[in-house]
Amino acid sequence: MSTAREPLPDVVVYAAFASFFVLLIIVAVKLSKPKKPAARVAPKSAEKKTFTREDVAKHNTREDCWIILKDKVYDITSYVDDHPGADAILNNAGGDSTEGFHGPQHPERVFHMIDDYLIGDLVETKKDS
């Protein structure tokens, strides 16, 4: 009974080295790609703003996208291109997205994430100053 190990066949050694180098190349390529800039979150203002449906309706494009969720107004412009559902996010741009937002397609984390885009409250009419 011999306890000495038999040497690995050359092909196994070469395959291990080749796999290692392929992995290194993949990692190097991933690290060298410029990262997509982080989504710009709408700035939080100390003063709470109010908007009418008419105000929100003016912001109905990919480049300027506001939505209403449960009487709150959100500027989601910076998130549109990152939305996993592609252009579905634009279906209610400039309008009320409450019904479409609350569905099985959105995991729970989305309900917390949306708060970062809150810009104010929806009102029926603006008060005169």
Please describe the biggest sheet, giving its number of strands, its sense, and whether it closes into a barrel: 5 strands, mixed
Hey, roughly how much beta strand do the residues contain? 15-25%
Predict the CATH topology of the domain at 49-122.
Flavocytochrome B2, Chain A, domain 1
Structural shape? rod-shaped
SSE run: HEHEEEHHE
Mean pLDDT: 76
Radius of gyration: 26 Å
The main sheet orders its strands as 1-5-4-3-2
Percent helix, as a range, is 25-40%
Write down the CATH class of the domain at 49-122.
Answer: Alpha Beta
CATH architecture of the domain at 49-122: Roll
Q: Kindly report the name of the CATH homologous superfamily of the domain at 49-122.
A: Cytochrome b5-like heme/steroid binding domain
Would you report the number of β strands? Answer: 5
Helix and strand composition category: alpha+beta
Low-pLDDT segments, ≥5 res: none
Number of helices: 4
Considering the chains and any ligands shown, give keywords for the structure.
alpha+beta; 129 residues; single chain; 4 helices; Flavocytochrome B2, Chain A, domain 1; 5-stranded mixed beta sheet
Task: Describe this structure as you would to a colleague.
The structure is a single chain. By secondary structure, the protein is an alpha+beta fold. It has a domain of 74 residues: Flavocytochrome B2, Chain A, domain 1. The chain is built from four helices and five strands. It has a five-stranded mixed β-sheet with strand order 1-5-4-3-2. A hairpin with a 2-residue loop joins strand 2 and strand 3. It is rod-shaped. It starts with 9 loop residues before the first helix and ends in a 7-residue tail after the last strand. The mean pLDDT is 76.
